[in-house]
Each structure stands twice: as C-alpha cells, then as structure tokens.
Amino acid sequence: MEWSELDLQAALWLIPAERMKMNLPHVVPLAKQALEIFKALQPVTGSGSYVFPGRTSSRPMSDNSVNAALRYLGFDRETVTGHGFRATARTIPDEVLGFRVDLIEHQLAHAVRDTNGRVYNRTSFY
C-alpha cells in the first residue's frame, strides 16, 4: 500500500485498477480505527512511498514479513497465515455478525454476483 493511495481526509483507500486482479479500481472506506493507525504511522513511514516499507524504503513489506511476524508471535503455519486473514474477513462478518454477503464480497474486491449478473452491478458501497 502506498501513501498516495490513502485519502485520510475522505477516509478512503483508493486502489488503482492496475493493482487489482480484475483490472478495476477499488475503493475501501476506512474505519475511524484504521484512520487512527494510519495517522500514527505517518510520522514514522510517511516520508517514503509505502505505508509498510520493507527492509529498505524503496520496497513494500513482503508477504513473508507478515508470516514471519505471525511465527514470532507463536502461531504455526497450520494455525494462521497472512493470506488467511482474507478468509476470516469473509467468514466472521457473514456467520457471526450477519452482514450481507454481497457487501462482504465487494469489500474483498471479489466479483459481486447478483440476480441480474455482475454486468449490471455498478454499485459502490462507500
């Protein structure tokens, strides 16, 4: 994630089409808690391009860094992976919190299927 993608005033993360699998831009509304975290990070990493830089400021943090942090915290590979958080973000809002599945799928940038087909679905949820 790059700082240029964050609009902290509007509380939005604006992901350009070229970074998305479906080659469509994706807009993620940011919760106030996320905004607080980004604002706290800005003095630390805001002078570089990336919100979460890697070992050098010219590259972003890798997936391996996230997984290494999880191992450091005591989680084994069978219990949790960084990518596994996507499955959690899909399951808990549906099964525990009762959110609409189409909203969850849209937030995860999955193709939102509806009765008319996705070609007619141009809804933005922000």
Outline the secondary-structure elements.
Elements lengths: L5 E2 L4 E4 L10 E4 L2 H14 L17 H10 L11 H12 L5 H7 L19
Antiparallel strand pairs: 1-2, 2-3
Q: Can you characterise this structure?
A:
The chain has helices at residues 32-45, 63-72, 84-95, 101-107; strands at residues 6-7, 12-15, 26-29. It folds into two domains: 1-61, no CATH class; 81-126, no CATH class. The protein has a three-stranded antiparallel β-sheet with strand order 1-2-3, with no helix packed on it. It contains four helices and three strands. A hairpin with a 4-residue loop joins strand 1 (6-7) and strand 2 (12-15). The mean pLDDT is 86. The protein is mainly α and 126 residues long. The protein is globular, with a radius of gyration of 16 Å.
What best-fitting shape do the alpha-carbon axes yield? globular
* Portion in strands: 5-15%
- Spans of at least 5 consecutive residues whose pLDDT stays below 50 are none
Strand order of the largest sheet: 1-2-3
| H/E topology pattern | EEEHHHH
Tell me about the largest β-sheet.
3 strands, antiparallel
Number of separate structural domains? 2
Number of DSSP helical runs: 4
Protein structure class:
mainly alpha
Percent of residues in helices: 25-40%
- What is the tally of beta strands? 3
